[in-house]
Design brief:
Layout (H helix, E strand, L loop, with lengths): L8 H18 L6 H5 L9 H21 L3 H4 L2 H6 L9 H20 L6 E4 L11 E4 H27 L3 H9 L20
Antiparallel strand pairs: 1-2
Helix pairs in contact: 1-6, 1-7, 1-8, 3-6, 3-7
InterPro entries: DinB/YfiT-like (IPR034660), MST-like (IPR007061)
Protein name: DUF664 domain-containing protein
Pfam family, one: MST
């Protein structure tokens, strides 16, 4: 958990982004491959598919925050849709490894961003925006947190639908928090993710 503190704006952005990433990662703790691929809600979204998608989000954000938006990648809707689904040759453990490999570079890109710098955002035709728009990097930083928080919420809902376990308890477990009146560490079954 990112506890209250007097961090500067960029450090706050990094810490909040990492908090959301911790929740998304923890959402797979103790799941079987079948559970990680399952789609327990009315959509086609699975916990492992969500982790795969967020990995793509992190990789694209590194490019956007360090070099500017890659319009071809931003507007590649087929790649966007494919990022939510594990291919037959992918595993939940494999997408978690890719997620963790992308995480440090992503957080470093956020840490290296000047919130007051000017840049352009790519078109977003799904929102009725057909041209690039000038923004401060602050907009991009907050948009990253918005996206990650949305996906962390998705991860929590998916996990609760699978086995009733809440993601905040899984995050505390992965953080090694001691039990207290509000929390008991989760113990993953042998042979599951993170066991």
């Amino acid at each position: 958990m990112y506890a209250p503190t007097e961090d500067d704006e960029v450090t706050t952005s990094v810490r909040y982004a990492d908090q959301q990433l911790a929740a998304i990662h923890a959402s797979l703790l103790g799941l079987t491959e079948e559970q990680a691929r399952s789609t327990p809600c009315h959509s086609a979204l699975s916990p492992a598919g969500l982790v795969k998608h967020v990995t793509r989000v992190m990789r694209q954000a590194v490019v956007t925050l360090t070099r500017g938006p890659d319009l071809a990648a931003e507007l590649d809707l087929a790649a966007h849709e494919a990022s939510f689904v594990l291919a037959d040759d992918e595993t939940a453990a494999g997408v978690l490894e890719q997620f963790e490999a992308a995480r440090p570079g992503y957080l470093a890109a956020i840490a290296g961003t000047d919130p007051d710098a000017r840049t352009l955002t790519p078109p977003a035709p799904w929102d009725g925006i057909d041209d690039e728009r000038p923004v401060r990097r602050r907009y991009q930083l907050l948009h990253q947190i918005e996206e990650l928080a949305r996906h962390a919420g998705h991860a929590d809902i998916l996990r609760e639908q699978i086995d009733g376990v809440s993601v905040p308890a899984l995050v505390l477990t992965e953080d090694g928090a001691p039990p207290n009146d509000f929390f008991a560490p989760y113990v993953p079954a042998p042979g599951t993710l993170g066991a």
